[in-house]
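Example record for the data management plan.
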Amino acid sequence: MECLEKLDEKAKRTAITDVERIIAGKPEYVDAYNDWGVALYSRKRYAEAIEKYRAAIALKSDYARPYHNLGLALHGQGHYAEAIEQYQKVVDVRPNFVTDSYSAWGLALAALKRYEEAIVQYRKSIEAKPDNAGAYTNWGNASYELHNYAEAAEKYQRAVEIEPGAGEYEHWVQSVDQLDESKKAAAEISVERAIERKKSAVAYLNWGLALYNRGRYPEAISKYRKALEYNPNYALAHNNLGVALFAQKDYSGAVATYRQALDADRTFALAHRNLANTLF
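Corresponding structural encoding:
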């Protein structure tokens, strides 16, 4: 696909026609159509990807993977109900392939604001793959939309315990803020322990950003500094720390921190701009 992109339009059309002539109607090339669709999907060329997935399915109607991928492409176009139909076909064709399809199915339901049904699919995904951090995060998002903050906080926490750097800290902080003080403290301790175990600078950065967005600047500063303990050359953490210090009117501290961000990455345009705005 990358090689094709480098050709002019006429050469590209000729190459594509040649490939399609070679693989057309041959079941042994079903993976070629599927992989072609994946390459197109990765470039957000959803309509073209859909054509390739349908071609794969036409060659082998009991092949689960192109149904799943077709669902993703339809989702990308905003056709959520049609995407769900494809995920159901995955279940019908190959029930033991459905871990990712359950999660994708849940996301399509959530896009339709059918959150209770989405949770059912996330639960199935987790039953098939207990360490599925993404499914826990998505479950948390659905619970958050249902204003079930205790459940949302619990699911976000579980996701962080599995994969701290991929947590949904924005909604987690907002959910935890709805709990009573003892439960809030327990949740924060559990998440911090999970991050400490994995020594995740990214997790502390994301937690800090969520706190900053809530106007909790001293707590955000603390998390950014924890991120920098694990990665002293983390330019984004230095920059975000500078922003939080600026919000606290610690201008000299902000200037010093922006300079540290630029020491870590001289090309960091945002840090250059923040430093200039603070100095002038």
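Summary line stored alongside the record: The longest helix spans residues 181-198.
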